[in-house]
Specification:
By secondary structure, the chain is of the alpha/beta class. Helices cover 42% and strands 20% of the residues.
Length: 305
């Protein structure tokens, strides 16, 4: 019996030793963290705050690399085709990440097979933001103006097929209006146009617009989450403003190329979840309207599916 137990244990010992060796030797060089949008947006904020904590945890620099374009697809494809060695991470925006599978006729990656899930990272609400010159103070005003001027108002997005774009189109359908979509490569590129009034509104994540709303340079009309945000407690939700059931929340998660060794994925998951639970990271992200969330790889895979 003892001999049988020893025989059974020997393969397990070798497996654990191999995993420990792979984990102990990783990382030996800087890690690239791809953010598929330009600097300045919520995904960039999430990536940079998390990268700083992971740098401390991994003992190697985690460098954020912005790869914007095609509603995040360029960054996603870059990571999907990178070596599966744990040295390229992706901060994926789940809405755009999943929508791309059905929205685009052809993309050069497959969400289901080209990525391994590491952990959920955080969620944030979108907010309907207008230029102060637009004579609207609430959703009812916005709908009335859009109906009075069909096709004259416009909204910006970070790319066709992305969450911001589709939130705007969902608003068009729910409110039975026609507000024209104007695509950009990211928030940092359309924000100057919004501040000048050349773009009437956006349905963007809250972080990049919050300072301008508080300064009176932009107006927050409604948030698109199921509940109000404590950052702007007087701003109602779209649902409570006359469009019941309307909800759009941006979710971010960490991925690696699909064939990344499981022990490295497990190691990254453990350090990512620990970072997301740290009080200083929570404080920094909460100030940007982002709620940090850490999950197991299996739970993230379930959410993605």
């Amino acid at each position: 019996m003892n001999r049988l137990r020893n025989i059974v244990c020997i393969p397990l010992i070798f497996m654990l030793a191999a995993a420990a060796t792979a984990q102990d030797g990783y990382p030996t060089k800087p890690v690239r963290f791809v953010a598929p949008y330009p600097p300045g947006g919520s995904s960039d904020v999430m990536a940079r705050v998390l990268a700083q904590k992971l740098t401390d945890a991994l003992g190697r620099q985690v460098i954020v690399e912005n790869r914007p374009g095609a509603a995040g697809n360029i960054g996603h494809e870059l990571v999907a085709k990178s070596p599966a060695d744990g040295y390229t991470l992706l901060l994926g925006a789940l809405g755009s990440h999943a929508v791309a599978m059905s929205y685009y006729a052809k993309i050069n990656f497959d969400l289901r097979t080209d990525f391994a899930a590491v952990s959920m990272a955080g969620t944030t609400t979108n907010i309907v933001v207008v230029h102060p010159a637009l004579p609207v103070k609430n959703i009812k005003d916005l709908i009335a103006l859009a109906k009075a001027r069909p096709g004259e108002l416009n909204f910006a997005s970070s790319g066709t097929g992305g969450l911001i774009h589709l939130t705007g189109e969902m608003f068009n359908q729910a409110a039975k209006v026609k507000i024209v979509h104007v695509p950009y490569k990211g928030t940092a590129l359309f924000l100057p146009e919004l501040l000048k009034g050349q773009i009437a509104m956006v349905f963007d994540t809250i972080a990049p617009h919050l300072p301008f709303i508080k300064a009176g340079k932009l107006r927050g009309v409604a948030v698109t989450a199921g509940k109000r945000t404590p950052l702007l407690p007087d701003v109602p939700t779209v649902a409570e403003s006359g469009l019941p059931g309307f909800e759009s929340v941006a979710s971010y998660a960490v991925f690696v190329p699909a064939a990344t060794p499981k022990d490295i994925v497990a190691y990254l998951n453990r350090e990512t979840v620990a970072a997301l639970q740290s009080p200083d990271l929570k404080e920094r992200l909460s100030a940007a309207g982002i709620d940090p969330v850490g999950y197991s790889p299996e739970e993230l895979e379930r959410i993605v599916r």
